[in-house]
């Protein structure tokens, strides 16, 4: 199934307060971002027509009274916008902030808040303009420069982002988020050692800083430091968007207590790809326990049943069977003390397979010597990992290759949109879960995929998979490597510049031509 894992962007807890009781100086904070406020609490806001009439009437009577009324109107618009912002009503917040700025553009706090709201709605170019207007008015505001740096980072303008964040630190080096945000830019540049330096500085200010602890763990993992990485990976339990519901009916397994005669529940969390990736550790604990129960989402159940040692599979959210101990599946490498050598040994062989009884028959065109599965698009968050299908046109035209789409979302329409229905067979109607995907993949000679759950599935089955990887790498794919310690059958084609697929697609196309020609020259190919 063409779905990618999600994780990793932290949400801020929301507190519901009435406008009257809200403290104006304590605005909602977005992730690693501070929202400036005007410390004023005023009466309810009239609509825009009433506002304009009040200002006009004021001008007719007394200029000083008109000025007071106008200030009141502007502040009321801002407070109403702030309330909408805190309530998550971003479009309303943008509209109200903009109305306040039309009345008086000389308001750095409102420009800053508008930038925050626009950034949250992914209108980055407009957000950057708002931040720059705020900086023109209040250049000494360190938090504003940090906000601007966050926006530039999401726009992948990393050099400018670093300059903005370092300006924030220059203005105020006592704020932990300014230092942390600088580390995030180095992380996105794949400079994980430099990123760790900034994360550690932020942790020196606050050792309990969850975001810094989390990203430090991912940096250690990206550098192959599994001891520190797995320990820090447990920080995910503190993330707002990764709740692991408490299970008080039985203790959590620490990796040390005896599992003989015990029923161990392996709990579900995070995305499809994460669950597939970490399923490789199940056989290790299965050898030590009497019975293994795997909790997972419905779509994963057919393939999780094929993992060696799994005794039962239960759908996430359903009533759980009886168990003696439990542990999140993604905690297994930590509690088992998995190192680089262990990972290499565990990952040497496939550990997933199509469910029994699932078989497919394909009817490729005459002369086909290479059947290729394609996944080019996935979820947009935390980053869009998609590679436009039309960038793959050079290989789609190759004679002797048959291409099959494993997309299951609305991006299936890309096939018809760019006019390649003669070259790409859409399998979407035949895929309802990962069991279906596994059976269809088994019939392929090669999978070409973005960083996605299907890429994990192909690798877990030992099927050759060529993965197109964003410039900003995910921790699990390490740095500057074409291979993967997780999947021996994987080859990675990395962007060399942000948002530029030309180099990896060119390299993939050359390798594809070589592979296709070798298949054509193989004995009995024709």
Could you characterize the architecture of this molecule?
- About 40% of the residues are buried.
- A six-stranded parallel β-sheet has the order 7-6-5-8-9-10, sandwiched between helices. Strands 3-2-1-4 form a four-stranded parallel β-sheet.
- It is about 45% helix and about 10% strand.
- The longest helix has 24 residues, at about 65-85.
- The model is unreliable at about 1-30 and about 35-50 (pLDDT under 50).
- It has 21 helices and ten strands.
Concise summary:
By secondary structure, the chain is of the alpha/beta class.
Quickly count the helices. Answer: 21
Residue windows where pLDDT falls under 50 for at least 5 positions: 2-32, 34-48
The total strand number stands at 10
Global shape: globular
| Helix-strand makeup class | alpha/beta
Helix content bin: 40-55%
Main sheet properties: 6 strands, parallel
Radius of gyration computed on alpha carbons: 27 Å
The main sheet orders its strands as 7-6-5-8-9-10
Task: Quote the distance from N terminus to C terminus.
Answer: 32 Å
Give the averaged pLDDT, no decimals. 88
Bin the strand percentage.
Answer: 5-15%
């Amino acid at each position: 199934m063409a779905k990618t894992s999600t994780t990793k962007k932290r949400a801020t807890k929301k507190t519901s307060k009435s406008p009257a009781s809200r403290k104006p100086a304590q605005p909602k904070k977005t992730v690693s971002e501070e929202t400036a406020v005007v410390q004023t609490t005023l009466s309810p806001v009239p609509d825009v027509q009433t506002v304009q009439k009040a200002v006009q009437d004021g001008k007719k009577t007394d200029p000083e009274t008109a000025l007071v009324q106008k200030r009141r109107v502007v502040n009321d618009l801002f407070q109403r916008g702030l309330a909408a912002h805190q309530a998550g009503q971003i479009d309303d917040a943008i509209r109200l902030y903009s109305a306040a700025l039309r009345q008086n553009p000389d308001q750095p706090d409102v420009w800053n808040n508008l930038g925050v709201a626009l950034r949250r709605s992914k209108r980055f170019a407009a957000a950057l303009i708002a931040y720059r207007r705020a900086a023109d008015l209040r250049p000494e505001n360190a938090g504003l420069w940090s906000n601007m740096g966050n926006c530039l980072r999401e726009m992948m303008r990393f050099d400018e982002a670093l300059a903005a964040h370092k300006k924030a630190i220059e203005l105020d080096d006592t704020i932990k988020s300014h230092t942390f945000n600088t580390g995030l830019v180095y992380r996105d540049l794949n400079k994980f050692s430099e990123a760790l330096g900034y994360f550690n500085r932020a942790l020196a200010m606050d050792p309990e800083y969850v975001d810094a602890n989390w990203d430090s763990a991912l940096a250690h993992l990206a550098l192959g430091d599994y001891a520190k990485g797995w320990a820090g990976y447990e920080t995910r339990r503190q993330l707002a968007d990764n709740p692991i519901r408490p299970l008080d009916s039985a203790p959590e397994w620490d990796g040390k207590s005896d599992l003989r005669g015990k029923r161990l529940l392996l709990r579900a969390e995070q995305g499809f790809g994460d669950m597939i990736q970490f399923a490789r550790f199940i056989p290790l604990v299965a050898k030590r326990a009497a019975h293994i129960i795997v909790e997972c989402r419905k779509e994963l159940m057919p393939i999780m049943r094929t993992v060696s040692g799994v005794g039962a599979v239960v759908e996430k959210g359903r009533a759980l069977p009886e168990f003696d101990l439990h542990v999140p599946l993604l905690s297994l490498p930590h509690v088992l003390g998995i190192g680089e050598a262990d990972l290499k040994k565990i990952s040497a062989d496939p550990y997933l397979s199509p469910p029994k009884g699932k078989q497919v028959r394909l009817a490729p065109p005459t002369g086909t010597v290479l059947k290729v599965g394609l996944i080019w698009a996935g979820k947009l968050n935390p980053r869009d990992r998609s590679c436009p299908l039309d960038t793959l046109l050079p290989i789609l035209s190759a004679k002797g290759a048959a291409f099959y789409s494993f997309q299951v979302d609305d991006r299936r329409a890309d096939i018809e949109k760019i006019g390649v229905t003669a070259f790409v067979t859409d399998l979407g109607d035949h895929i309802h879960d990962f069991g279906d995907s596994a059976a269809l993949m088994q019939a392929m000679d090669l999978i070409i995929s973005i960083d996605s759950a299907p890429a994990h599935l192909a690798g877990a089955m030992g099927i050759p998979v060529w993965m197109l990887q964003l410039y900003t790498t995910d921790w699990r794919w390490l740095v500057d490597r074409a291979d993967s310690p997780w999947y021996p059958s994987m080859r990675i084609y990395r962007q060399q510049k942000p948002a530029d697929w030309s180099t990896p697609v060119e390299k993939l196309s050359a390798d594809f031509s070589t592979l296709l020609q070798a298949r054509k020259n193989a004995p009995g190919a024709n």
